[in-house]
Write a structure and sequence with these properties.
Largest sheet: 5 strands, mixed
GO biological process, one term: P450-containing electron transport chain
CATH class: Alpha Beta
Number of helices: 3
Strand content: 15-25%
Structural class: alpha+beta
CATH superfamily: Beta-grasp domain
CATH architecture: Roll
Strand order of the largest sheet: 2-1-5-3-4
Shape: globular
InterPro entries: 2Fe-2S_ferredoxin-like_sf, 2Fe-2S_ferredoxin-type, Adrenodoxin-like, Adrenodoxin_Fe-S_BS, Beta-grasp_dom_sf
Cofactor: [2Fe-2S] cluster
Bound molecules: FE2/S2 (inorganic) cluster
Pfam families: Fer2
Number of domains: 1
Helix content: 10-25%
Family: Belongs to the adrenodoxin/putidaredoxin family.
Length: 106
């Protein structure tokens, strides 16, 4: 699948991802600035926070309790469409996914 990250300045960065990797893994592998992922994807740091484009929100699996709790401590304001990108598993069903980056992760 290919997914797009939209930076706080409005710049869109489209990257190719592999089936089964997380949006965070795809982003860090391809140097998308704005995803820090300090815990490496263990749902422990909240520095992979993203805002999911509204069109895609309902297509993502529901978040787990760990993710929900961590998002409360994210550096940037939590919004209704906030998710942790390390918990978004990519597959063909999410081809074209659009994720917006918050203005800070720490
Ligand atoms: Fe740490 Fe996602 S990488 S919570």
């Amino acid at each position: 699948p290919s997914i797009t990250f939209v930076h706080p300045d409005g710049r869109a960065q489209r990257i190719d991802a592999s089936n089964g990797e997380s949006a965070m893994q795809a982003a860090t592998r391809q140097d998308v600035n704005g995803i820090l992922a300090e815990c490496g994807g263990s749902a422990m740091c909240a520095t992979c926070h993203v805002y999911v484009d509204e069109d895609w929100l309902a297509r993502l699996p529901a978040m787990g309790d760990d993710e929900d709790a961590l998002l409360d401590g994210a550096a940037a304001e939590r919004q209704a469409n906030s998710r942790l990108s390390c918990q978004i598993q990519l597959g063909a069903d999410l081809d074209g996914l659009v994720l917006r980056l918050p203005d800070r992760q720490t």
